[in-house]
Design a protein that fits this description.
This protein has 13 helices and 17 strands. It is α/β, with parallel strands linked by helices. It has two domains: about 230 residues, Dihydrodipicolinate Reductase, domain 2; about 170 residues, NAD(P)-binding Rossmann-like Domain (Rossmann fold). The relative contact order is 0.20. It comes from Mariniphaga sediminis.
Length: about 450
């Protein structure tokens, strides 16, 4: 493996014929007008405080890191008669670390149902399961998702849905299979299950800010983490244990974290953007091949744009959020709608504490709420499939990443036609014949 921080003049993407599921349809556009509020066409979850009782549901976890362990506990907190009965990860130590953490929470997973290795997910799918929780590095999401649906399992899967256009289109194709099979798929875009975001969306879609004219989204934070390579680690083990720093595994931070904000803008806009122009760079990272920052201008058509920026650099001012502007006001998308002059038009009412003051937090954590919604959909036999919309937001982030990496204007059609697939051809521990140059804008071709 060659890990390079110097700039490369190799083309980052190659132009070729369409591979994978084509013709991704945009989410139905919402046309809002405050003077004539319209009915809101959106599949709102029921927002119960606890999933209804019903058939016992047995779940298996694929990906035993911190997020996977957390997602498993969130699932178990969603209602009664929910069990975690199997674990899978590429690394044995990760499996037993997760097993130990769960044990401290009185969650006992049978040791015979604990698997490790690149094919561990296949063994997990042979266990008697109803639900599969997918929380590996996102590179593996399309393959694992397809296998789970083929095995006729309901799925909770973390975002992003993929790291490249081929993977995103595969997820969309699998999503359509899930719908045809009557399965439920909920994704880790927890803002869409968060009560304040949902009610703010309802207000905006009903016309509270008039016609949407522009938006911006941002996720500015410190560099999250990296692993120093240990002497005995092979190339593959090093990358997998340091996955958050390699584009082929996580998609860069514009996908791994900022996709949340991009998803919100797509949601409020009612569609994905038509094109992207942007830039980014790398000045502080110590490992991997990713950028430190992105600044992307997404064009939605009809003169409507969204500015999207993300950054992971220590020692800088940090914040995150979204803002959508309209002809009659604007909103932070989370809990407040403002008049054009900045005065408050509407605010979400949070639960109050014993002193009668607002708690400022929703009644149920959105990380648990999304699992309540998953279990509710299964037990009420009202399937919900969120994978396609998350894949669309994932592909939007990939479009922005591609624009920054190449320095070119990148269109949605480019994403539908792109054959870019990141990562090695086969997965095995050992040395990996891959190079990791930092993308150099202006010397590369768009997809």
């Amino acid at each position: 493996m060659m890990e390079k921080n110097q700039l490369s003049r190799r083309n980052f993407l190659e132009r070729s014929a369409l591979i994978g599921a084509a013709g991704i349809a945009g989410i139905s556009a919402l046309s809002s007008c405050s003077k004539n509020a319209k009915s809101v066409d959106y599949n709102f979850p029921p927002l119960l405080d606890k999933a209804p009782d019903g058939k016992k549901l047995r779940a298996g976890l694929v990906g035993c890191g911190n997020r996977g362990t957390g997602a498993a506990l969130n699932f178990l907190a969603a209602g009664n008669d929910l069990e975690l009965v199997a674990l899978a990860d590429v690394f044995e130590d990760k499996v037993w670390d997760c097993h130990g953490k769960l044990g401290k929470q009185q969650v006992e997973v049978p040791k015979g149902n604990c698997f490790w290795g690149f094919d561990a997910y296949k063994h997990l799918l042979e266990v008697d399961l109803d639900v599969v929780i997918l929380a590996t590095p996102p590179h593996f999401r399309p393959e694992h998702f397809d296998a789970a649906i083929q095995a006729k399992k309901h799925v909770f899967m973390e975002k992003p849905a993929a790291v490249d256009p081929v993977g995103a289109r595969q997820v969309i194709a699998t999503s359509q299979k899930a719908e045809n099979m009557g399965l439920t798929v909920v994704t880790g875009t927890q803002r869409r299950h968060q009560r304040d975001y949902l009610e703010t969306y309802r207000q905006v879609a009903s016309g509270a800010i008039g016609e949407i004219t522009s938006a911006k989204a941002w996720w500015l934070q410190s560099h999250v983490w990296f692993r120093t390579r240990e002497e005995e680690w092979t190339d593959m083990e090093y990358m997998l244990r340091n996955w958050n720093n390699f584009c082929w595994l996580c998609g860069d931070h514009i996908l791994d974290t900022h996709v949340h904000n991009i998803d919100i803008v797509n949601w409020f806009m009612g569609k994905q953007p038509e094109s992207a122009v942007g830039f980014g760079g790398r000045v502080r990272r110590l490992t991997g091949d990713q950028y430190d920052f992105f600044s992307i201008d997404f064009e939605f058509g009809n003169g409507i744009f969204s500015h999207s920026m993300s950054r992971q650099i220590d020692g800088c001012a940090n914040s995150l959020g979204e803002l959508v502007m309209g002809t009659e006001g604007y909103t932070n998308c989370k809990n407040t709608i403002f008049n054009p002059d900045g005065t408050i038009k509407w605010q979400y009412e949070y639960p109050k504490n014993k002193d009668g003051k607002s708690t400022g937090i929703v009644k149920v954590s959105p990380y648990v709420q999304e699992h309540i919604d998953l279990v509710t959909a299964i037990r009420t036999n009202k399937p919900v499939v969120e994978a396609e919309r998350t894949a669309v937001s994932t592909l939007t982030a990939i479009m922005g990443r591609t624009a920054a990496y190449t320095g070119q204007k990148v269109t949605w059609q480019d994403m539908l036609n792109s054959t870019e697939r990141l990562g090695p051809e086969k997965y095995e521990m050992g040395q990996v014949e891959m190079e990791f140059p930092t993308p150099l804008p202006g010397t590369q071709h768009k997809a």
